[in-house]
Amino acid sequence: MKERFSKIFELWNQRNTEYYQEVFEKLEKENKLTFNFAAAFFNVTWLIFRKMYGWAILFTLVIAGIQISIRMLNLSSSMSYGVSVLFSLILFVGFGFFGNTLYYKYVRSQVSKGYANMPDYNPIDPISGIFVVIILNFAILMLPVVLAGTYEKS
Amino acid sequence: MILILVSSFVIAVSWAINYRKFHSQESGEPIEVTEESVNQYLRKSSSKYLAVYFITMFLLYELTICSFLMLQVHRSCALRQLNKMSSVEKTKRTTSEDTSNDFLKKFHLIIDDEVF
Q: Contacts from A25-33 at CB under 8 Å and sequence distance 24+?
């Protein structure tokens, strides 16, 4: 069972590597954009997973800033919902189409610094991504408690 | 807001760990980037990490989606209940207002043989 699992993930990893090789080749030779579904769906978590920490912090703060400004505008609930959906769609499309370009530039900069030759370097970071998702999970799980508190106060 | 700050802090900490661990190993002069070196970089990702990541993420997202759905169900149930309660209250109020006048018209209050 364990061997089968490890084989599946080895194949998955290989497929992932092949995907990025193909995408980078297309970017380099044809200057063609390709859609990255992982980047589109998981945006900031994907950035952390691919070790693009600077971009991850920047986008977290940008997303937070936009959400706060939507709240501060005091729009009607349907309007603010619409704006949030529109913003999510923009993020989805933006990350989907430009995620690979961003990663390509990042990989090139890392390779030029000699990261490809480091023996113990791993180009993916799953642990921080998991931590961030746990924090977001905690927010969703704690929402009823927070809401109950504000209701009692009011 | 606090959670966003905490998640930014987590990202910054892992960035710092990564920087501290590998910055000393960086080459002083920039290395020429070739297709082979890019492929070499991509091939370095460990499948063990990938397995741990995908299984945990799957469980966490499942949990998030489930809790979100549960919240929505609770919210809609509570709203429905509140609407029902307010409509019952409204009908009670209107019927009591209607009947009270009619009810009073039919009755006469008699105190010490005087009819009111």
A: A25/B35, A27/A100, A27/A101, A27/A104, A28/B35, A33/A97, A33/A98, A33/A100, A33/A101
